[in-house]
Amino acid sequence: MLVGCDSKESTAPQFEWTLEDELEHNENRNDPEKWSQKNWDTDLSNFAINGNPLVKGVFPVPDYKFVDSTFNGLGNSGSWEGLDFHGKKIIHHSFFVNKCLVNEQYISGKPNEVFFTILVLTDSVDLQSYSHTNVNITSRNHPHYVGQGYVKTSENKIDFISFITADRNAYAIVNMRLFDLRIGRIVLIAPKKDGSLRSLQLDSPILSTSEMEMYVMDLLNADEKVINFFNEGDHI
Known about the structure:
Elements: E1 2-3, E2 14-15, H1 19-29, H2 37-45, E3 74-85, E4 88-98, E5 112-122, E6 133-138, E7 145-152, E8 157-164, E9 170-174, E10 177-180, E11 186-191, E12 197-202, H3 209-222, H4 224-230
Parallel strand pairs: 5-11
Antiparallel strand pairs: 1-2, 3-4, 4-5, 6-7, 7-8, 8-9, 9-10, 11-12
């Protein structure tokens, strides 16, 4: 799981995840002696059913220290209110993991890593109760991380789930369409007036949350391919 660094300038361990590590992790999931009582109590007290694609179940999980004790949190960012775009509204959400031993060798000193960003064109924004969108992300699969959410339009609902694994595989599912995030961590969704959907997947460098916010604005303001995608005449 932890291996020595080849650099002569540093002997700090690097994180490596193998199938053997996954098998051990699974054994820890099934071993009550390895479970985290703190996480169990927290999850049980916060259990609730909401409108997200998957109900977030309460499972006992191993204490994080058995994999990596440097874990420092995760979260989501973006625009719940919607970004103004040529008279339309675009909701966007990002899932990120803070720097820890699991990802630090890949993120070039950034404070966190965005592993999935979605931009959804919508014609329905509720600025009072924000019922038009929701997101949540969990670290309970540590060192793998999973986020999910939805964006509603007046006639449709865009559900999405995304995850990144310790061995750097990352995927998203949007209304049952699968995206391999290794070829692009940004997904654009445009609902059509006939109820169908269009998608556009974009590649990007590994970005922090603050960098992604600026990157999204640049896409919407200056990227001709993105502008044309969202401006097609038969979108909602």
